[in-house]
Amino acid sequence: MFKENKRLMAADTLIGQGTRAEGTLSCQASLRIEGEYRGDIECKEDVIVGESGVVRSNISARDLTISGKVYGDVVTTGRLTILSSGQLHGSATTASLLVQDGGVLSGSCRMEAPRLQEAAQPAPAPAPQAARQVQSGEPAPPRELREGVVKERRQAG
After folding, report:
1. 138 pLDDT more than 60
2. Which ranges are annotated Basic and acidic residues under compositional bias (predicted)?
């Protein structure tokens, strides 16, 4: 619980209360907005919109926590949390959604599975029969012998 609260309080970039900013914001670390922001936000880490924050923006982030107001579409690869004082007016695409009692989600929501690089990679091919024999403790015969035995059996049959 305390770890969660520390994470909500700490941020690498802060747009403080009383500050108005506009433009396109791209950040590699966490972002906290207590003031007003208009434009697009793309953040590799977490975005926190504090109680005094008013954001008119499309937001893309790992996790997004809203206790202020957001007007725009949001996409998270992790969790979207709307706290009791938070409002989201727009569409949401997320892997996990939490809306506290009193929180507002006015718009559509689409749930998607988390995007993991491991999941995108194809599964390894099954081991060939010869490799299975070696793993079971029996040495695999050389390929020429295996093919020769098959040819002899075909000719005999």
Report:
1. no
2. 141-157
Whether the model pTM is above 0.70:
no
Cα separation, 44 vs 27, whole angstroms: 6
Structure confidence at residue 109 (pLDDT): 94
Tokens 């995108």, located at residue: 120
Q: Which domain holds residue 141?
A: 126-156
Q: Is 86 inside any structural domain?
A: yes
Residue linked to tokens 């305390």? 2
Among candidates 63, 64, 98, 69, which has minimal Cα distance to 85? Answer: 69
- Whether 54 and 98 map to the same domain: the answer is yes
Are residues 71 and 132 part of one domain?
no
- 87: its two tokens: 């409002």
Assigned token pair, 112: 């998607």
**Burial letters for 116-149: b for 16+ Cβ neighbours within 10 Å, e otherwise?**
eeeeeeeeeeeeeeeeeeeeeeeebeeeeeeeee
d(CA 85, CA 66): 8
Give the whole-angstrom CA distance, residue 106 versus residue 36: 20
Report d(CA 66, CA 104) in Å as an integer: 10
Residue 72: pLDDT over 60: yes
